[in-house]
């Protein structure tokens, strides 16, 4: 691990904010760089860890360090041309950098019918405003897969497919406009791991073990049993596992104190609404799997108790642009909203009587698919104070939606 900057000659320690990373020693300290040996514990949590360098004269801005499941291979130049592609074994992570007009090529041996996944962590590393593109070519230079932006990872692309034939495939990484610089660093994960674009449901009750269903075109739906943390979290990452391999980055869910209500089959009109006898607070969960689909739920509410209705979809990387509507027992509209919480919907309503009410969820443009997952939380109005300290020195758009 190395740090580069200015006035680093009196560095004394690396502060690790999460457990699992042990700094063995600072092996080299100069005015502009610090190198350190670190040990990663076997139970260290996957994903992003936060670090600062402390010197006798001050403390650095926040920096991040990623922990994954695969061995790291350093990118070696020249590898700009497919004929000079660097050979990489499956289930490995390449650590590289894209400089101006740079193209990095990697060769992998694949067999017909096996699953191949590739994923870049670039802008998510927080180093630069880096927009990578990922392309896979077969031996005949035909494009087998190509990805730029994704709903789950935004500017960071990924792809996953079943290999059409035996052969050597070329995985190409570049900046989308052929830009780049020394800060456009990336981690490229390649292997047979699952790379789901969506997870259902989009949350669960704190402390419970939930069956989460993951989906990608290369795997279809598959389920993992996952124990949720004991304390609610607005955004919690869960890692899909399939056939002994783990996805290199998480899908995002909510952890709350609310019981889950899952959409029942065919709840696409008021007559067939998913029904629950649970009083709010509760969470309604579903997938708008078809174009033009609407999902309906019936729930009880108490007269005069103000309810907040919050949709969590785009904030958890679902492509859904939600519209929600509340109806009374006679089918009359009480309240509706489209984009009060960014792209996600939010509204308040006060029940006029203690009875059952209906909620309808749809996409504003009538889109749908297995990735159009949503979670609607119904809760009473509660006083809340929120404090957020920005993570400075971070070039990342992952928290903007």
Number of strands: 35
Quickly give the structural class.
mainly beta
Strand percentage lies at over 45%
By CATH, the architecture of the largest domain is named Sandwich
The shape, in one word, is: globular
Mean pLDDT: 94
Report the top-level CATH class of the largest domain.
Mainly Beta
Return Rg in Å.
Answer: 24 Å
Strand order of the largest sheet: 8-10-17-12-15
Number of helices: 0
Biggest sheet details: 5 strands, mixed
Entry keywords:
401 residues; 4 domains; globular; mainly beta; Immunoglobulin-like; 5-stranded mixed sheet
Notes on the protein architecture:
With 401 residues, the chain is mainly beta. It folds into 4 domains: 2-67, Sandwich (Immunoglobulin-like); 72-191, Jelly Rolls (Sandwich); 198-256, no CATH class; 259-380, Jelly Rolls (Sandwich), CATH 2.60.120.380. It is 0% helix and 49% strand. The chain has no helices and 35 strands. It has a 5-stranded mixed sheet, with no helix packed on it. A hairpin with a 3-residue loop joins β20 and β21 (220-227). The mean pLDDT is 94.
């Amino acid at each position: 691990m190395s740090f580069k900057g200015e006035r680093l000659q009196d560095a004394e320690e690396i502060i690790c904010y999460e457990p699992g990373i042990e700094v063995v020693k600072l092996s080299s300290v100069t005015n502009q760089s610090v190198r350190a040996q670190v040990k990663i514990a076997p139970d260290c949590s996957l994903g992003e860890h936060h670090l600062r360098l402390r010197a006798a004269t001050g403390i650095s801005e926040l920096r991040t360090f990623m922990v994954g499941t695969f061995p790291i291979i350093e990118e070696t130049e020249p590898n700009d041309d497919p004929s000079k592609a660097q050979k990489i074994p499956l289930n490995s992570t390449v650590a590289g950098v894209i400089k101006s007009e740079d193209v990095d090529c990697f060769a992998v041996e694949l067999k017909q019918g096996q699953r191949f996944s590739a994923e870049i962590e670039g802008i998510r590393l927080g180093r630069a405003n880096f927009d990578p593109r990922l392309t896979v070519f077969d031996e005949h230079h035909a494009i087998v897969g190509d990805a730029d932006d994704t709903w789950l990872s935004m500017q960071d692309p990924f792809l996953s497919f079943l290999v059409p034939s035996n052969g050597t495939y070329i995985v190409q990484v570049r900046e989308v406009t052929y830009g780049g610089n020394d800060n456009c660093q990336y981690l490229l994960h390649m292997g047979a791991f699952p790379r789901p674009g969506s997870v259902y449901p989009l949350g669960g009750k704190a402390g419970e073990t939930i069956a989460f269903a993951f989906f990608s075109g290369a795997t279809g739906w598959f389920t993992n049993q996952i124990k949720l943390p004991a304390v609610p979290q607005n955004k919690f990452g869960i890692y899909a596992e399939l056939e002994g391999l783990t996805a290199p980055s998480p899908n995002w869910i909510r952890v709350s104190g609310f019981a889950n209500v899952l959409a029942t089959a065919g709840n696409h009109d008021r007559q067939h609404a998913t029904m629950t006898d649970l009083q709010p607070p509760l969470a309604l969960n579903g997938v708008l799997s078809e174009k033009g689909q609407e999902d309906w739920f019936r729930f009880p509410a108490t007269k005069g108790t103000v309810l907040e209705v919050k949709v969590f979809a785009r904030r958890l990387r679902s492509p859904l642009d939600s519209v929600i509507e509340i109806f009374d027992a006679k089918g009359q509209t009480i309240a509706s909203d489209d984009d009060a919480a960014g792209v996600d919907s939010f509204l308040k309503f006060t029940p006029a009587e203690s009875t059952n009410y209906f909620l309808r969820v749809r996409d504003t443009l009538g889109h749908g698919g297995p990735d159009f997952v949503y979670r609607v939380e119904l809760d009473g109005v509660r006083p809340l104070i929120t404090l957020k300290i920005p993570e400075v020195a971070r070039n990342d758009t992952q928290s903007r939606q």
